């Protein structure tokens, strides 16, 4: 697979004078550190569950605009040297110098720069961009570069295994070394003959699934890089392998085992002492499907499973039935994912060297066997100007700077095996990407699941990869093309043309994406021209990685290609404590959409209270989609995620690390359709996760019912034994119906919802409590009228048996179906459905203010009062004078929401306003104290919206993690569950 040393040497001889590096951010004669205000901070990290201090380093130096979370994670994860010794790094300057000076030296030593001055500009520009969170290298760079450790710069590895015991045992060994270094690996097991084939000795082969057990046990034993998380790995099997059904059902069967053992009383939580008895839990599994198979699924025909040694068909199966088994297993346990083999290899730049058969654990890196890729990601919000235009020219320049640095790293990098080192040096695969796409779309007024959002994402991705390959072709003129280029030149140029053609197909919708697209078009034209003359320095250039830990390092609101996780976030404060905040991207988006300051303030206040925008005062319903998030009241639909991936995929060398989340109610058929649509839309890989499908996760806020019952029984037994309690006869109370009197007060309300008319009659008990309701909607005798009558009876009987009205209000408000829209009720101006209107009206008529306010239901008078006084609560005579004074003071100061947000940002640890933080979207709006029981944004959203986020608990600090690509990341300490 690898090229000769002679080929590399010949490439170097054809090289010309080095690069001229252009200044982007820096000023001649001024070091980037000199323009930054630095401050000392104490970093103390505890596990909130145990109270144990897990890390402490005091007096570390960071820029004042870095958040507490960013400085904490960088200090704990990336600073080298024993804590408490003088060898420990004491600040960000030392960390950045360690990395940047190593890159600059390697660039000079290997002839990358035209003059010493170009080398200095490169060093200063790289330093500035890192200090100001414009981009970040992947974690192994921060771990290893410039230290005495091996200079491993890659996070992603692909291995290979053949059908021999030597190769299988070597697979175990190589994986172990990669895990030890803190990285992850993937491989395809399809070369191993199936359990339905014979060995040369005459016996039957074990099959690949049996060998997965040994590798899984090894991965579970070796902790990645000495951290507490287990190793990350990917196992792939081709759809035509005779053992494919066993592979598909492997983890689903183990999930059944987890349930059975849990119900028997064993500790099956992630990290529990009994979970280790379950197999195959340390890998992500994926099925590699072909176009032939997917067409057979569409047409409902048979599909042949082929012997590994001869290639002959040894069994025929129904393609649809097999796909249903894949979808059913994913429905049960989220595995396997799916990889589209023909699409992947149609975009492969090196087919003459070998096919792409596998990916890294997070599925974004796809290249040759025994290869690696180092990653870096740009922070998109750093390129959004104050006037809400995207600085595409600077974005292109930074991409070219970063891709240059990434290529330089291969010159000095170490690799876990010689074969990986050879392939990587010969093909020089890189993975530039970005983070904060979701925040950028929201800040610019684009819905994530919208044509405009997808057009903007597509043009940015196209410009990123086009700029990277343009610089790769320029590097080839300076230091030579990659060694494997000559034999793959035609294929490489063909793929470049495919990217250019895809760029030509993008339909731009506004001035922002049009200007980016124009630069991307120019870049791709230069790619083909320069590539034809010089060749290319890199076999691949771009991927979209999870950006978990490095996303926190850059103070990003969103990771990778993901939408915003939630509108309200959890934020730590300097000196301890925490606050809940509304992202500054929200008032910025509202301002761009034309809302006035008073409306912005009211909407932000509403979001801070409820965590979503549904029924926010003054917010137009057509703008709701801009604020849709990954979870909550308006979670983005599964196909919304798929369509965004499809918009960006044609402009990436590799793939996209992303999991498509589905609600717990999703069906097997829906998952099957997602897999089918992913193939039709041209994705390279896809993974799904159905909420609450997995059992083996640590408990967070709530414990299982069984454990609670066990603890109660134990406590009762202790009290009885000590004499503090007596055993009494158990009395069971059954609900009794409280009927309304023969004559009762009632009121009838006429209403319209979306132009449809109806009547609501509510009957009350003598004490004023609601006891019955009648809904007239639709023609008498129609099906709709009959359903309304039956529904009214059911609700009335429930009320009379004691079901609280607030329970019905909670369940039926925010239900969405037609008719919906404007109403004629001033207290409920917009309604999502008839039910939404009816129960809001009932809440206003029959529930007290405190109960309603917890649900976010206010009258028109109360909303008007909130705009004037800042509070929905009724104003007493004693308070009237005080409120008048406050209103006059507010009018005198005339502070905008942005100014108030900036003041809030100051409370987060800076002694002066931080326009950089406001500009980046990392600041806060409507900051308020948060309960001590909340430790992450995921837990905050659970509290605000009353729904659980299905994510594991960090095994380092006990904080609930949040999704990042196809893995999870902890915003408390930066730990990840994957390889990012």
TrEMBL record:
Annotated ranges, domain TSCPD: 740-845
PANTHER family documented for this protein: RIBONUCLEOSIDE-DIPHOSPHATE REDUCTASE, VITAMIN B12-DEPENDENT RIBONUCLEOTIDE REDUCTASE
Compositional bias of kind Acidic residues: 875-888
Biased composition (Basic and acidic residues): 897-906
Residue ranges annotated for the Ribonucleotide reductase class II vitamin B12-dependent N-terminal domain, each copy included: 42-133
Protein family: Belongs to the ribonucleoside diphosphate reductase class-2 family.
Stretches the record annotates as Disordered: 867-930
Cofactors (names): adenosylcob(III)alamin
Function recorded in the entry: Catalyzes the reduction of ribonucleotides to deoxyribonucleotides. May function to provide a pool of deoxyribonucleotide precursors for DNA repair during oxygen limitation and/or for immediate growth after restoration of oxygen.
EC numbers for this chain: 1.17.4.1
Keywords tagged on the record: Cobalamin, Cobalt, Disulfide bond, DNA synthesis, Nucleotide-binding, Oxidoreductase
Catalysed reactions listed for this entry: a 2'-deoxyribonucleoside 5'-diphosphate + [thioredoxin]-disulfide + H2O = a ribonucleoside 5'-diphosphate + [thioredoxin]-dithiol
InterPro entries: RdRp_reductase_class-2, RNR_2_N, RNR_lg_C, RNR_NrdJ/NrdZ, TSCPD_dom
Name the UniProt record assigns to this protein: Vitamin B12-dependent ribonucleotide reductase
GO MF annotation, one: ribonucleoside-diphosphate reductase activity, thioredoxin disulfide as acceptor
Domain Ribonucleotide reductase large subunit C-terminal: 154-689
EC category: oxidoreductase
